[in-house]
Amino acid sequence: MAPRSHIFHLLIIIVLVYSMISPCCSLEDEVQPNINDIHLFSDPDRETGFDSRAYPSPFLSSDGVSSDMAEVIEGGISSYLEKLAAESAAKIVSVKSYGAKGDGESDDTKAFKKAWDEACSSGAVFEVPENKKYLVKQIRFEGPCKSAMAVQIYGTILASDDRGDYKKDKRHWLIFDSVDDLVVEGGGVVDGNGKIWWKNSCKVHKSKPCKEAPTALTFYNMKNLTVKDLNIQNAQQIQVSFEKCEKVEASNLTVTAPGDSPNTDGVHITRTQNMQLSSSVIQTGDDCISIESGTQKLKITDITCGPGHGISIGSLGDGNSEAHVSDVVVDGAKISGTSNGVRIKTYQGGSGNASNIKFENIEMEDVKYPIIIDQNYCDKSKPCKKQKSAVLVKNVVYQNITGTSATDVAIKFDCSESHPCEGIVLRDVRLRLEKDEVAQALCNNVELQQIGTVSPSCPDIQDL
Ligand SMILES: *[C@@H]1O[C@H](CO)[C@@H](O)[C@H](O)[C@H]1NC(C)=O
Ligand SMILES: *[C@@H]1O[C@H](CO)[C@@H](O)[C@H](O)[C@H]1NC(C)=O
Ligand SMILES: *[C@@H]1O[C@H](CO)[C@@H](O)[C@H](O)[C@H]1NC(C)=O
Ligand SMILES: *[C@@H]1O[C@H](CO)[C@@H](O)[C@H](O)[C@H]1NC(C)=O
Predict the structure, then answer these.
(1) pTM
(2) Which portions of this protein are annotated as coiled-coil regions (predicted)?
(3) Residue 324 falls in the annotated catalytic set
């Protein structure tokens, strides 16, 4: 930071403090109104002609000017200057200082964009203040940025629910695009405000045409990304999506939407390598986690899922496409009240493979199909035709999976006739019905090993 802006701060502080303690006014009576007046300085362009964008300053551009001033009065100038020095080490660009109102009604899109441009080009921290609700339309937070970036979301970012605002790009609301070394955190809320989309979904009203709806939060083409301590809710469609990312750590996410909200996948992962997702709670209307083609080296730990459709790999091979998913581990999950537990689903007619997958240490409660591989998946209005080729499913281990199934079928392997599932292992799997009744396993075209206690077990399979 330029020394002269420090001097400038000091001058303002001295003038303000002096005017407060000067004999003309009683401090007790006047502190409040004075502090409110001081707030005007947060728009320095108007008040002083000082260009805060040319001389970024945590004092002038910070939204907390009035509380800062209170601190100055209480704590003295020297401690304030210490704080100032600490802040200028990591400059903070708050959306508030770029005009965002945060009243939940005014359109704060422009302020967010301006603040992002400033933060990205200067390597500052992009901040969304707490206790405010910022209504925004579509925003693309685009990189590359000057240096590693931090985005701190303390308050709420609320999506516009005017569907006309999504004409330019029907698939995204907030998107981070090509920003390397980004950390997104803060404990705040990203709210897709999705009701209007759900109401008009063809999944809810069969008579309505099926239309695309935006993903609330997308990370696209990011390298070395950390996303933690965030609440993502009520997405228009997918809640949070990682696409074409490399080296991702996502943790302590709370992802929620009503159980009957259509297509609201919780965490969607596609074309992404080296990702860890941990310690997260996902309650939503579609898959808690959906893992799509191009995903390699994904580790998922400590997940609470339900309501929702469970943890899904696929659907893969749609429209005769080639799909590859490998080295996926789900270790530690509690899945309850969902339509599936851990699922691999592929369309007939695809190619490629889903391989080296391990599901372990998972507790199921009241799950319709706790363990399922469906190589004849079909989610089309017309039934899918029988086709020869298939995405291969091989080397899938299910270990230490216990709990209850809501249907008779606790384990379902419905593999392709022409390309049976290979190298499937059930080890220490104990699933039962609610009232301690014995569940069933349906096993078609599967090459399977069963180790330890496996219940229910596939008929006609030799136990090892
Ligand atoms: C990854 O990002 C973090 C935080 O932004 C940064 O501290 C770290 O140096 C980056 N790692 C690499 C290998 O670039
Ligand atoms: C997880 O995030 C929430 C905010 O969403 C925060 O209050 C909490 O402290 C975080 N937990 C951990 C262990 O960091
Ligand atoms: C995946 O499938 C393709 C054929 O569709 C094959 O060429 C490739 O070797 C397979 N990869 C692995 C890791 O099994
Ligand atoms: C089995 O998984 C449960 C969690 O569902 C875990 O508490 C337990 O320690 C695991 N048992 C073994 C032997 O790893």
Answers:
(1) 0.82
(2) none
(3) no
